[in-house]
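Lay summary. Proteins are chains of building blocks that fold into shapes, and those shapes determine what they do. In this project we predict the shape from the chain. Here is one chain we studied, written as its sequence of building blocks.
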Amino acid sequence: MTRRIIVALLRFAFRVYFRRVEVDGLENVPRKSPVIFVLNHPNALVDPAFLLCLAPRSVSFLAKAPLFKIPVLGFLVRALEALPVYRRQDEGEDVSRNLETFAAARKLLARGGTIGICPEGVSHDEPRLRPIKTGAARIALGAVSTGEVTDLKIVPAGLYYTSKTTFRSAVLLHFGKPIEVTRTELKADGDPPRTAVRNLSGRIESALREVMLDAEHEEALHTIARAERIFSEEGKEKNDSLAGELQLQQRFIKAYKILRDHAPERLARLEVRMTRFEEELKQAGVDPDDLSPPTSTLDVFSHLISRGLLFLLLIVPATVGLLIHYPAYRLGGYLSTRFYQDSDDVISTIKIISAMLLFPLTWLIVGLITYRFLGGIVSLIALLVVPAAGYAAIRFSEELDRFLGGLRALAFFLRRRRFFVRLIAERNAIRNEILALGDEAAIVTN
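And here is the predicted shape, written in a compact code that computers can read:
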């Protein structure tokens, strides 16, 4: 029961914090046989929470032992049936106790359960996959080779954040093809041989790179960040899929490495072209998301009228929601940046946790105030209306931003139609160049 409540609260928090939450590759997750999920780790406690909430199976995580000693967090990880991992870098921990953890993990898998592991070991801000630990491979080989577990699969799960520290950004959880685990002859002490562990760890690492954005060089990620909106426009033409956006960026990463090594002048020309395009957009005051030609004058005015009516309906509850929730929102942002300003992988975790605490506290305070001055019925109504008003404030802000962006694009189109059309053509040309680079990289690597 406690687990269900925690998962429900986390799902609600994710739907508020992230504008879009997508899951891809569910067909790759076995529904009945035991599974070990391996997950990349760019965003602290948010990463396992996503797998916990969005996987089609109930997942028990391996979590670092110090978390079990933190008062509130310790209760939560126990309620979620997590298993402790004892690491050398954690002061005072006895790593020999990992034998108990591995035994508990094998028993869980033998019952047909699933385990989630972040094999990188720590959350980080690096643009690439860090060297993975051998725990997942050791557990998998030990479970299968002792005969305790049959038909075990390792499923790679990749998290792709469009902007992990930004409120109302987007996130994709992508499940890759499952990895088969074969039996091996165990050593006298019951451990699998190093060669088998190393080989399976290598397969896990390769599978993880296929489901995440893995940039070997920082400058590659910077270039991709600049091109991201161009990619997203391509995604909008293909059912607005984050999975498609991720695939495009993965292709460009491969192309970037090849170009950097073999044709740096072509890469330089692309970057110059992107810079010029960005400058022209900036001068025009137009966002790339709004760079699409209007269909007809009637459609434009119909759209403006419908949006105007929507704003009239939302403006009162949105204003109330903004005024009530703004102090909690600002306090959460302050706490995350004040204490973790150098750790982007922790910021969104703190923001989400603070929102889960501060927003309900805000609702409780409003309920108590209305109860004190207006009575029980009004207080009950306030407890129902205030959260809805907060959501209305979020939606109003997003719709207003799109509306104003559309107005700027329309005004620009009417004033400088030729320049507008040329920008669209240039955007398409840059996108096509990026796609061509990805195709060429695929041919070279294959």
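What the prediction tells us: Residues 218-290+425-445 form one domain.
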